[in-house]
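Good day; I would like, with your permission, to put a structural problem before you. A protein sequence and the structure tokens that stand for its backbone fold form the material at issue. I would ask you to consider whether the tokens describe a fold that such a sequence might reasonably adopt. I set the record out below, with my sincere thanks for your time.
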Amino acid sequence: MIPLEENLLQNRWWENCSGIMRFFPKKQGINLRDIINKIDIVKEWGFDAIEIFAPYYGGVEYSGLDVINYYCVDPAIGNMADFLELVAQCHENGMTIIAFINLGYCAMECPVFLKACDDMRKGIDSLEAHRFLWSDTGKEKLDKSLVPYFMNDVDGHWCYSERAGKYYWVKWKGIDGNVELPQFNFGDNVWQDECKRVVDFWAGTGIDGMIIDAVNWYINCNWQINNESITDIIHEYPNQYIQPEGAGGFKDDPVQWISMGRYNSVQDYGISIWWTDHDVIGGAIESGNPSHIENALKTYHDRVVEAGGVTYIGPNWARKASYEQRLLECAVISTIGELFHDGGKIFDLKWPEQYKAELKEIIRTLQKYPALQAPGSREKLNTNNDDKYYAFIRTSIDKEQKILVVLNFQKECEDIVVKLKRPMEFIDIFSGRHMSSGNSFYITLPGYGYGIYLYKRQNDFNK
């Protein structure tokens, strides 16, 4: 394992990161060596980080999230030497790498669970048995005082095991709903200690952070257990990105996961929730009315940033869109202050080269312009019709750079007027064209078009 020491990456790297490309090795039928060979392509697209989904030895459910053995790489994708080389290659290329880890449940064929079942039938009070939640009747109710942060038995059921002669708790039934995946019991010190070892093991590989799967559904968990078993362990390593997947998506306040849970990022469920039809940007593009975006950002994203975190989101590929609509969606994500995320769909796009080149250019803007990066601020500007257009100023966290963004949600070419506080000079970041304005900025944008303009006179920023 890589020794515990400060790496050469920029402190709080996720605040300056353009985006994260997620790989699902088992789902995509690729191995770690294949991913190493794709690093140059990831960089070409403008992504600064790679995410490996469920690198440990897992089963077949949810792309391998159902753990069989935490302490080795899944043999279907390689071995630990391959994983360590991937980490090293990312760092040598100036990139970061994180892992998506499930700490909530295991596969039905997990040896630890099978031994726990045998021990329960024999009446043996073993460490393995203590990792799971058992019942003699299958009728027990769990504490719901921390809902919606820790959901316990809001959803799920007791499942009878013939092998154990007892019921065990299940939340997840697999992709096809035909398995009963055993939940770990965070209320037991035995699982808490094992969870600490698992987190420490993967943090010790030299990765730069973790996304922890479905934290709201960790049975008998609470803020103290979460911190002592998960986030405090990760924070022992320097410069670590930590995200609680699902947190903030169940009407739970995302800020609590930053302040109480000691994470530093959440997915922006104010904008989109992938397991529902909630999609503010997609809805705005479809309806031609972007007026709801600002309020969605204020009530979720802005509060997370104010608390010291960042938000993470990607295109909604499940929603049908034209090339121009998809480019606008990506332009919105790239400019409103999100950590841009993609699950590998970009690599498979069957788009004309001109549109692919335009998408690359959009993502690369996040690398080039600190004002567009996640922790910067955003100030909405009035236009000649805010029900058709969306305009705002982004300011870098150090106040040294400002950028004007103008977005057209109409399918036709539109003449847009943006109200400014003072005359300004701009540079179009795509064309390099120098532009001047009075107290109003006039621009014509094509259907579903976008404009991104760098404020030219830096000494105007604080007037």
